[in-house]
Amino acid sequence: MSDGILLYCRPGFEKECLAEVVETAAESGCFGWANPDMNSGFVVFETTPTPKVIERLPELVFARDAWAISARLADLDERDRLTPIIETVARILKDAGIRQVGDVSCEYAEGEQYRPTARFAGKFVHPVRQALRRSGSLTPKTRPDLPALRLFFKDSSQVLIGVDRPDGRAAWPMGIARLKFPAGAPSRSTLKLEEAFSVFLGPQWRDRLQNSHTGVDLGASPGGWTWQLVNQGMHVYAIDNGPMDETLMATTQVDHQQADGFIWKPDRYVDWVVCDMVEKPARVAFLMYEWLHERHARYAMFNLKLPMRKRFAQWQEIREFLESRIAQEHPKAELRAKHLYHDREEITVYLDLKNQNG
Ligand SMILES: C[S@@+](CC[C@H](N)C(=O)[O-])C[C@H]1O[C@@H](n2cnc3c(N)ncnc32)[C@H](O)[C@@H]1O
């Protein structure tokens, strides 16, 4: 039995995260409230979530990761925090009919003010893991296919406890994508596209791109996104009036065209169109839909730069537009969006109209 949902978001996006979970929960007849700390990077949504709401948590755009809270402990004694936690976990697992969890994480908020808690949680995970293994509640080796135990420390004396579902888990705990900046990539935004592939196509995304041979990058300069496509062996049309990185051009896999990304079109069908143009988000979303609908490309990955105000409302309008077109014209389409760890005032969208065969 759960009495709330913990959601992680980018610090500063707590309002959007809350508005979205309120709306999603209400669609399943589930109501609740929250009073989030601004810039904390998390929201505790007070509610009794139905299974449907828990199932829909991965769909949330502004929540990078989320799980249902099964217990809360406050006033932990610093001389022995472990005993009450282990006892509570044993009770939760028994109630849920779970014999063992496959992993455990000690989590914390990303906001600046939570730095000391982050250090504490980073160390505390080791004794927790040992104690759970001794009690037989944790598998000897990590098992990603089993539920994982999640412990969120607001500070070192308060913990929220939950057990997640393997199929609802974010690609990285707390949605914090730990990616190494690839040597040779021309800009840091290369990590945005790498994270997007991993989140939307799954950890085996490189295998999935093996059959993709051509790509278009709209708003490509200096080439961080183009670099990712080139690195997967694609030939890329890079569209931007700005300059492209010289080393990237020397690969001979890039055709740089100084043109307007809203006008330029390829001569033939390409596998991917990616777009990072700084433009009105509705205009970009419409362009991407048309690219796929008119069969210029098979798949689209694009960034929508959101305005400071009404960020959630703006995404809602765009989503409604895309969903209504999809419902009329491509009912099998896949549309997914996420506020990625490497996104700032923007979200990333993946669209596949699944229309290549008719
Ligand atoms: C955020 S930067 C792209 C960074 C790039 N994704 C990377 O990883 O290096 C946005 C780019 O969009 C380009 N841009 C904006 N409007 C454009 C348009 N209408 N047509 C083509 N490029 C455009 C800008 O010149 C700028 O280089």
From TrEMBL:
The keyword Membrane does not apply. Residues 187-279 form the Ribosomal RNA methyltransferase FtsJ domain. Residues 4-65 form the RlmM ferredoxin-like domain. The active site is at K305. S-adenosyl-L-methionine binds at S189, S221, P222, G223, G224, D240, D260, D276. InterPro entries: RlmM_FDX, RlmM_THUMP-like, RNA_MeTrfase_FtsJ_dom, rRNA_MeTrfase_M, SAM-dependent_MTases_sf. Keywords: Cytoplasm, Methyltransferase, rRNA processing, S-adenosyl-L-methionine, Transferase. Residues 80-163 form the Ribosomal RNA large subunit methyltransferase M THUMP-like domain. One of its GO terms (molecular function) is methyltransferase activity. GO terms for biological process: methylation; rRNA processing. Pfam families: FtsJ, RlmM_FDX, RLMM_N. Transmembrane segments: none annotated. PANTHER family: RIBOSOMAL RNA LARGE SUBUNIT METHYLTRANSFERASE M, RIBOSOMAL RNA METHYLTRANSFERASE FTSJ DOMAIN-CONTAINING PROTEIN. This is 23S rRNA 2'-O-ribose methyltransferase RlmM.
